[in-house]
Automatic annotation (TrEMBL):
This is AP-1 complex subunit mu-2. It is found in: Cytoplasmic vesicle, Clathrin-coated vesicle membrane; Golgi apparatus. The keyword Membrane applies. It comes from Cyprinus carpio carpio. It is a peripheral membrane protein.
């Protein structure tokens, strides 16, 4: 990958005109093959595309290409006049955001202006002559700090990790007690239509480590990977097929490709070892049924029934069921079998919070609202119900850590600990359109709050 310039610019909103001012906050010239004034053409192209309503991540002016991302109120732009690998350029730009965020907590215009000396130091270390160099923030923090006096001392002594083959781990690490904590975290994304049919579902997983190991240990991780079992002729028991696998740089990819062994020297402390996706049919772990009962010119009642469709010995924690309501609803009243419900008028939602939801259990919530414009309210296009939750000690895919071997020349014994967590994918784990029934009056059999 070859970059000529890296620019960090103040974000330009879509209402800018050709005469509007723009500001380059900071830039770094790595090769000098592109004139700095070319950045003016980036804003012109950006405004043209905003007017057309179609933004392209790569824009060109003559033989100069602009590859850019937007973060907060900033644009990060890489320029090149070569046939560069675009995916690598974008990986580097997002890595810039990650490193700057870890240094400054929030990456925005003010943090760049207040820390421009550190930003230049980081840009010089992250890339050299257009090629990525040291991109691990933990290593960078060993010799680039936000204290000026430490910067002067660091210039006389560069950490060996910068020139090491193992650039992500320092030498001489010592712990009294050697341990490895492994978290297998899976997020479920499920889309369900109004008829109860699953329209799409997938599992996005990650394996995170917290290593507290002395020396330079080599770790070998074994999973119930279907391809591994097929290679060894032991295709027995439950196995999983992982797709879109992404590893930390510490993993020996050649070893994984040859015999599916995950072998690596781990970073010290917390890190994400790998991420993966499993494209499989998944039933909603928390099933939602909703009925809206409308009473003419007066009120609306919403009944929501939630059922845990997972093992009884498991428990979903911090469950939030978000039910959309009309924008003009008022005078809310609630009745729940478990947990508590509250009305969030600024988001037109009822949020039903359940601290602990055992598997196999069925819970009920009823909400009552006054609704002056009930007969004019459109039911079509109603926002979907969404569910958030977390289930510890459970994986829906069935992935398992079969073994963790820790090899270190001193021969010490280390303890591996494994934890499994399943959670909703963001806030849109389960989407169900409500079913509606309209009543003209409240009869004897109706349950009114």
């Amino acid at each position: 990958m070859i970059n000529d310039y890296i620019f960090i610019l103040k974000a330009v909103c879509h209402t800018l005109t050709q005469t509007s001012s723009h500001q380059v906050l900071i830039c770094r010239n790595y090769k000098g093959d592109v004139d700095m004034s070319e950045i003016d053409h980036f804003f012109t192209l950006l405004m043209q595309q905003e007017e057309e309503g179609l933004l392209c991540p790569v824009m060109s002016h003559g033989n100069v290409h602009f590859l850019w991302i937007k973060h907060s109120n900033l644009y990060l732009v890489a320029t090149t006049n070569k046939n560069s690998n675009a995916s690598l350029v974008y990986s580097f730009l997002y890595k810039l955001v990650e490193v700057f965020t870890e240094y400054f907590k929030e990456l925005e215009e003010e943090s760049i202006q207040d820390n421009f000396v550190v930003v230049y130091e980081l840009l010089d270390e992250l890339m050299d002559f257009g090629f990525p160099q040291t991109t691990d923030s933990k290593i960078l923090q060993e010799y680039i700090t936000q204290q000026g006096n430490k910067l002067e001392v660091a210039k006389t002594k560069v950490p060996t990790t910068v020139t090491n083959a193992v650039s992500w781990r320092s030498e001489g690490i010592r712990y009294k007690k050697n341990e490895v904590f492994i978290d297998v975290i899976e997020s479920i994304n499920v889309l369900v239509n109004a008829n109860g049919s699953v329209m799409s579902s997938d599992i996005v997983g990650s394996i995170k480590l917290k290593t507290m190991l002395s020396g330079m240990p080599e770790l070998r991780l074994g999973l119930n990977d279907r391809m591994l079992f097929a290679l060894t002729g032991r295709d027995k028991g439950k196995t999983v097929t992982m797709e879109d696998v992404k590893f930390h740089q510490c993993v020996r990819l050649s070893r994984f490709e040859s015999d599916r062994t995950i072998s690596f020297i781990p970073p010290d402390g917390e890190s994400e070892l790998m991420s993966y996706r499993i494209n499989t049919h998944v039933k909603p772990l928390i099933w939602i049924e909703s009925v809206i009962e409308k009473f003419s010119h007066s009120r609306v009642e919403i009944m929501v029934k939630a059922k845990g469709q997972f093992k009884k010995q498991s428990v979903a924690n911090n469950v939030e069921i978000r039910v959309p309501v009309p924008s003009d609803a008022d005078s809310p009243k609630f009745k729940t079998s478990t947990g508590h419900a509250k009305y969030v008028p600024e988001k037109n939602l009822v949020v039903w919070s359940i601290k602990s939801f055992p598997g196999g259990k069925e819970l009920l919530m009823r909400a009552h609202f006054c609704l002056p414009s009930v007969e004019n309210h459109e039911t079509e296009g109603r926002p979907p119900i969404t569910v958030k939750f977390e289930i510890p000690y459970f994986t829906v895919s069935g992935i398992q850590v079969r073994y963790m071997k820790i090899i270190e020349k001193s021969g010490y014994q280390a303890l591996p600990w494994v934890r499994y967590i399943t959670q909703s994918g963001g806030e849109l784990q389960l989407l169900i359109q409500t079913r509606n029934s309209v009543k003209l009056a409240c009869g004897p059999s109706d349950v009114c709050l």
